[in-house]
Design brief:
CATH superfamily of the largest domain: P-loop containing nucleotide triphosphate hydrolases
Strand order of the largest sheet: 3-4-5-2-1-6
Distance between the termini: 15 Å
Number of domains: 3
Number of strands: 12
Strand content: 15-25%
Structural class: alpha/beta
CATH class of the largest domain: Alpha Beta
CATH topology of the largest domain: Rossmann fold
Radius of gyration: 29 Å
Largest sheet: 6 strands, mixed
CATH architecture of the largest domain: 3-Layer(aba) Sandwich
Number of helices: 15
Amino acid sequence: MPRLQDTIAALATPVGTAALAVIRISGPDSTRISREIFGPDSPPRSVRHRDYRNLGGTLLDDVLFTFFAGPHSYTGEDALEVSCHGNPFIAQKILEDLLARGCRAAEPGEFTERAFLNGKMDLSQAEAVMDLIRARSERSLAAANQQLRGALGRRMGGLVDGLLGVLARVEAYIDFPEEDLPREDREVVAREVDRLIHDTGRLLATSHYGALLREGIKTVIVGPPNVGKSSLLNRLVGFDRALVSTEPGTTRDFIEEQIQVGPHSLRVIDTAGINPSPAPIERLGMEKTLERAAEADLFLLVFDATQPAPTLPVELLGIIRPEKSLVILNKCDLVAAAATLPISGLPGLPVARVSALTGSGLDELIAAIARQAESFRQDTGDELIAINARQSHALGEARDCLGQARLKIGNSGPAELLASDLRGALNAYGVITGVVDNERMLDQLFAKFCIGK
């Protein structure tokens, strides 16, 4: 846990030469330090231009600075931000001077952790800060912004309020055992617990979509050798990323690139061709292809429209589903417009016709990929909520506790045991927004942040 009595400082922009660098200071000595360096005539939340001189009086740079009086700052404490020229040497000299004036170097995530501890945000909003920094698509950016503005916190608040109402009703009968639980009250409790289980499940269902937003949709290009998989990858990424040759089996390993398709980020992986009679080195490549396919979120199944229908391995056919697959008939510039290619064992899959050589059909293909990607979203209403792995674990625990509570209601179990299950669900809900003060969990979570944030 951070030592809140310390004043901390860190570079808040990436290390390296740039036009500007920003140094952030937060803590009880921020006011003193601001006055020592820049003088007393600096009203809060107002940008000022001054020379920055170190303790020895040496001019380091001319800077812009802003003082923030707590609680009206990011951390909720008195804080100071200094914008200097983006020479790493200048930034380092300013940091060294701040340490000499009594600051301590900030730990990863310490500014955001202080914001959480000072009530400026709940834990789901704190996690959204890192999601916002790492967002690589319109959808991930939208989800991070909504969560930063409290979308998940509001949803959890509704669940907690409903659960507290149920718990209060149940505990009333524990406190007053002479009053028997009427039948109609038991039905009210059962209905409310059912609603909580349903609403918790809806949030839990967004876990996979959350992983896709944060990591990118793992999109695997598979198909026989020499059907144009690498040419298709080059078209999608916009440059010659993969080696292309008329010789079959050019790709022996997998190649991965990140691309944007509409509002989505995709991790596109070009793999070795599926050959029914592979050479030894090709067999190793095919094994890696099947490994990547087993982890795929989306399949792009590429076939040569001029060739007979291929036979795919049973291992591949067993994991291909219409909702996560798209058949791509390549080399359509060489066949009649109405030509089709029946694929044995793959009925009902959407089909796109392209020419990776000429680019014909590429726009239609990208639109089809975007539709497939959009179908992964779980509907939770107007707000785009996509929980992370930690939140998913807590919601899973809450749903399990609620499930146990529902069984006890159905079996007319003791009110004390029913209340215990409900309290377990309440604690699990609290883990998501940080109501439950688990020091070890907080340390691990904020350690993943970057320095200066």
